[in-house]
Amino acid sequence: MADLVDTRGILRFISADTPHPIGSVPKRLIDIVLALLGIFLLAPLLVICFAATVLSSPGPALFRHRRIGFNGKTFECLKFRTMRPDAAERLQRLLDSDPTAAAEWEASHKLRCDPRVTMIGALLRKSSLDELPQLFNVLRGDMSIIGPRPVTEEELARYAGAVSAYLACRPGITGLWQVSGRSTTTYAKRVEYDTFYAENWSLALDTKILVVTIPALFSDGAY
Fold first, then answer.
1. Are 118 and 72 in contact (CB under 8 A)?
2. DSSP letter assigned to residue 83
3. CB of 108 within 8 A of CB of 187?
4. pLDDT in tens, 132-152
5. pTM exceeds cut of 0.70
């Protein structure tokens, strides 16, 4: 049995018999416990973010985006919506008219001054509260609490020789990239962090990342 995956127009077969993601059973059990605990404790905050998103701009509260997970399997990554309904058009207009913004987008797939983001969305992104719905992705088994950031098919091509390291993991809500500068780092550095994590995973490393995640949220690295 194998799944057919299309990455930037290149069809390839991913074996359904590939070993479990790094960490296997111990990491998965910890993920389930932490996700359930997080949903229970943060339920009021989830409701507040949901209501604020719906009331602040037209559109659904949740944004679903197709990402690549363990072994090349695609899944719908959940976030609170932070962008305006015409986000794609706004981005294209900016990239076509502003070479500096186009260069920034090419380097990191991020924009410090992003015209697509709503006022509430900017606050959610700054605090990373927009990613709270991914706790449900963790319960489903699509993601882990800690791992590489989930990428799109287009982004996966940028991993080049590091693709196998990324595909060996379940993507994470937090990880080395998030606690090491986040949006202020280059995309190449992000690939380095993800590769290091996959090749050096341990429960001790996960614990260290989890401990420094909260202070990292209050840094100036998210947008």
1. no
2. B
3. yes
4. 999 999 999 999 999 999 999
5. yes
